[in-house]
Design goal:
The complex is a heterodimer of chains A (215) and B (251). Chain A is mainly α and 215 residues long. Chain A has ten helices and no strands. Chain A has a domain of 150 residues: MetI-like (MetI-like fold, Orthogonal Bundle). Classes of the chains: A mainly alpha (215), B alpha/beta (251).
C-alpha cells in the first residue's frame, strides 16, 4: 500500500495519460473502423479493395512496429511535427481501427439482407441505408467483440511507454528509480488495469441490455 | 433517359431477360401494366414470378431489355434509381420491417428522410395509415412484438406512406399463418378498389378472382398466359396452366 500512496503522483499521471491515449484512440478507431467496414461492403470495387488492403496490411503488422513508425519514422518524413502522445494516439487508432472494422463488418453480415432491400425500396440511397438501417442493427449485434477490441486497446496503450509517452506502463520503471520494489509496483499497475477493464465490462453489459434487437 | 412507352402503361417491361448462372429465369418478358390496373402474377414455384416482381424496382438487375415506370427507364444504381424507387411501393414475403425501429418510425422513416416531410406532419400521416390498416394501437411497439399479419399490414402502410404510383407485392401472404392471411388480403382488396396500380405475385387464387383485372401465368421464366381472371380460371388455354390449376383444385 505504501508503494501506491508514496508514489501516488506517478500513478495519477501515468493512468491519466493511459486514459487520454485510450479515449482518443477509441473514438478515432471507432469512427475510422466504421468507415472502413462500410467501404468493405460498398458497391464500388475500388473502395472495397482499398479498405481490404488497409485492414490486411495494418492488422498484420505488430503494434510495436506501427508505433515505432509514428514515433521514429514519421518525424524523418519532414511532415507536420507531432509530439509522442499524438503519435501514439495516431498509431493506436490506425491499428485498433482494423479490428473495429472487422467487428462492424461481422455485425453488418448478421443483418438480414431484407432489411437493406426494404430500405432501398422506400428510396433510401446507399449511405442512408447503411447509416439509418444497417449500422444501428450491426452495432447492437457486435457489442461483445467490440468491447474485446476496446479492452485490448486499453492494455495496448502500455506499448506506448516504450516510446517516451509516460503512461501506466512506464510507472514501474519510474518506481524502480525511486527504489521501490519492482514486483509490488507491477502488481499495483495490474490491479488498476483490472479495475478499469471491469468498468468497461459493466458498460458492455449495460449496452447489451439496452440495445437488444429482437427479431 | 426517357423513352416513349406504348399506350399509357405505368409499368412497362420490354424483352426482359435474366440468368442465374445457367438458369434462364426471365425469358424475353413483355408486360404492360396500365394506371389503376391490378395484375396478379401466378405460376409454379421457380417460374420466375418473384424475380419479375423484384426486377421492377431493380432489386434484381436484368441483363437484357428495358423496364420503365411512368415513362422513365429504370436507371443504373445511384440517386436517380433511389428517387424512382420512392415512387414504387414494395411489400415483401418476409415483411422486412426495420427491426430496431418502432412501428411508427418504420412508416415515417421514408417520409422524413426521402420526402423531407417535417416530423410532426410525417407522424400524422403515418398514424392515419396505420389506423387505416388496423394497427394504430401498435404504433409504439417494435416489429417483433406484432403478429405476422400485423407486421405485413405495417409493411403495406410503410410502402403507402411514400404515395407510390404503383405497389409491388412479392408473395405477401406466404409467410403468414392461415388465419392471418385474410386480414392482409382485405387491405389489398381495399387498395385495389381505391384504384391503386398493383402487381401482385401470390398463391391466393381467391384474391386473383376477387381483385385482379388481369392474371398473368408464368412458367419456366416465360409468360404463358395473360388473361382476365374469369377467362383464365374457367378456360385456360395452355397445358401448363391447365396442369397448374388442376393441381390447385384437387385440394
Amino acid at each position: 500500500m505504501n508503494t501506491l500512496l508514496n508514489n501516488s503522483d506517478l500513478f495519477v499521471t501515468g493512468f491519466r495519460n493511459t486514459l487520454i491515449l485510450f479515449f482518443f484512440s477509441a473514438i478515432f478507431a471507432l469512427i475510422l473502423g466504421t468507415i472502413v467496414a462500410s467501404l468493405r461492403v460498398s458497391p464500388v470495387p475500388a473502395m472495397r479493395a482499398a479498405a481490404t488492403s488497409y485492414v490486411n496490411i495494418v492488422r498484420n503488422t505488430p503494434l510495436t512496429l506501427v508505433l515505432f513508425f509514428f514515433a521514429l519514422g514519421y518525424p524523418k518524413l519532414g511532415l507536420v511535427p507531432i509530439d509522442f502522445t499524438t503519435a501514439a494516439i495516431i498509431g493506436l487508432s490506425l491499428y485498433t481501427a482494423t479490428y473495429v472494422a472487422e467487428a462492424v463488418r461481422s455485425g453488418i453480415n448478421t443483418v438480414p439482407v431484407g432489411q437493406a432491400e426494404a430500405a432501398r425500396a422506400i428510396g433510401l440511397p446507399f449511405t442512408q441505408t447503411l447509416t439509418l438501417v444497417i449500422l444501428p442493427q450491426a452495432f447492437r449485434a457486435v457489442i461483445p467483440p467490440m468491447f474485446s477490441v476496446f479492452i485490448a486497446l486499453l492494455k495496448n496503450t502500455t506499448v506506448a511507454a516504450g516510446f517516451s509517452v509516460f503512461e501506466a506502463g512506464a510507472i514501474r520503471a519510474n518506481l524502480s528509480e525511486r527504489g521501490e520494489p519492482a514486483l509490488t509496483g507491477l502488481l499495483w499497475v495490474a490491479l488498476v488495469f483490472i479495475i478499469l477493464v471491469f468498468m468497461l465490462s459493466v458498460l458492455q453489459r449495460k449496452l447489451e441490455q439496452k440495445w437488444k434487437v429482437t427479431r | 433517359m426517357t423513352t416513349h412507352v406504348p399506350g399509357d402503361a405505368l409499368v412497362s417491361l420490354n424483352g426482359v431477360n435474366k440468368h442465374y448462372g445457367q438458369l434462364h429465369v426471365l425469358k424475353d418478358i413483355n408486360l404492360q401494366v396500365k394506371k389503376g390496373e391490378v395484375v396478379v402474377v401466378i405460376g409454379p414455384s421457380g417460374s420466375g414470378k418473384s424475380t419479375l416482381c423484384r426486377a421492377i424496382n431493380r432489386l434484381e438487375t436484368i441483363e437484357g431489355g428495358t423496364i420503365s415506370i411512368d415513362g422513365k427507364v429504370l436507371p443504373e444504381e445511384g440517386k436517380e434509381l433511389a428517387r424512382l424507387r420512392a415512387d414504387v411501393g414494395m411489400v415483401f414475403q418476409s415483411f422486412n420491417l426495420f427491426a430496431h425501429k418502432t412501428i411508427l418510425e418504420n412508416v415515417t422513416l421514408g417520409l422524413i428522410k426521402v420526402r423531407g416531410t417535417p416530423k410532426a406532419q410525417a407522424e400524422k400521416e403515418a398514424m392515419a395509415l396505420l389506423e387505416r390498416v388496423g394497427v394504430g394501437a401498435q404504433a409504439r411497439k417494435l416489429p417483433a412484438q406484432l403478429s405476422g399479419g400485423q407486421q405485413q399490414r405495417v409493411a403495406i402502410a410503410r410502402a403507402l406512406a411514400m404515395k407510390p404510383k404503383v405497389m409491388l407485392f412479392d408473395d405477401p401472404t406466404s409467410a403468414l399463418d392461415p388465419e392471418m392471411i385474410n386480414e392482409v388480403l382485405d387491405v389489398m382488396v381495399q387498395l385495389a378498389k381505391e384504384g391503386m396500380t398493383m402487381v401482385v405475385v401470390t398463391h391466393e387464387m381467391g384474391f386473383a378472382r376477387k381483385a385482379a383485372d388481369r392474371v398473368v401465368f408464368m412458367a419456366d421464366g416465360q409468360i404463358v398466359e395473360d388473361a382476365k381472371p374469369e377467362e383464365f380460371f374457367t378456360n385456360p388455354q395452355s397445358n401448363r396452366a391447365k396442369d397448374f390449376l388442376s393441381k390447385l383444385l384437387t385440394h
